[in-house]
From TrEMBL:
<dbReference type="Pfam" id="PF13895">
    <property type="entry name" value="Ig_2"/>
</dbReference>
<protein>
    <submittedName>
        <fullName>Uncharacterized protein</fullName>
    </submittedName>
</protein>
<feature type="region of interest" description="Disordered">
    <location>
        <begin position="119"/>
        <end position="161"/>
    </location>
</feature>
<keyword id="KW-0732">Signal</keyword>
<dbReference type="GO" id="GO:0002764">
    <property type="term" value="P:immune response-regulating signaling pathway"/>
</dbReference>
<feature type="compositionally biased region" description="Polar residues">
    <location>
        <begin position="130"/>
        <end position="148"/>
    </location>
</feature>
<dbReference type="InterPro" id="IPR013783">
    <property type="entry name" value="Ig-like_fold"/>
</dbReference>
<keyword id="KW-1015">Disulfide bond</keyword>
<dbReference type="InterPro" id="IPR036179">
    <property type="entry name" value="Ig-like_dom_sf"/>
</dbReference>
<keyword id="KW-0393">Immunoglobulin domain</keyword>
<dbReference type="InterPro" id="IPR050412">
    <property type="entry name" value="Ig-like_Receptors_ImmuneReg"/>
</dbReference>
């Protein structure tokens, strides 16, 4: 096995020296339109690339962390990911990353961009407003114990219907 160890050392050093992703600068993500979105609107997520990408991937924040939403192959300087008829659950944070063939590397994820839906005219604006405040409250209070009975009490409630 000593034969295996030797070629690995320079390789690791080589990777460490390029580990700052100098080769692969991180992309940036933007929303179009960037504000004033209502439920049912269309929005385009644009991943802006500093160089030609072999593959671009869009990630969406979910309960289990980031989930890959879509991908595109061979993109010059911008990848567009259209989101048609925005729903409440789309109002989360998104990130994109890209990979290149030569050298085969993957960029870091872009800064997260948050999709905010106002829900104008649909009576659902309390959804977007309530999301941020309830999140902060969850962090400060042990809600897990008081949450279970609430969930159980929901289905028979006449207001949902």
């Amino acid at each position: 096995h000593p034969m295996w160890d030797k070629p690995l050392e320079p390789l690791v050093l080589c990777l460490a020296s390029q580990g700052d992703n100098v080769q692969v600068p991180r992309p940036s993500l933007s929303l179009h339109p960037s504000q004033g979105l209502s439920l049912g609107d269309n929005v385009t997520l644009r991943c802006h690339l500093p160089q030609l990408a072999a593959r671009v991937e869009l990630y969406k924040e979910g309960f289990s962390g980031l989930k890959k939403q879509a991908q595109m192959d061979i993109v010059q300087d911008m990848a567009e990911f259209p989101l048609v008829s925005v729903k409440g659950e789309d109002a989360v944070r998104y990130q994109c990353l890209y990979s290149v063939h030569e050298p085969p590397e993957t960029s870091e994820k872009s800064e997260p961009v948050e999709l905010v839906v106002t829900g104008e005219g649909t009576g659902e604006s309390r959804w977007s407003l309530g999301a941020s405040s309830s999140c902060t409250r969850m962090g400060t209070q042990p809600l897990s114990s008081s949450r279970t009975p609430v969930v159980g009490a929901r289905p028979p409630s006449p207001s949902l219907g």
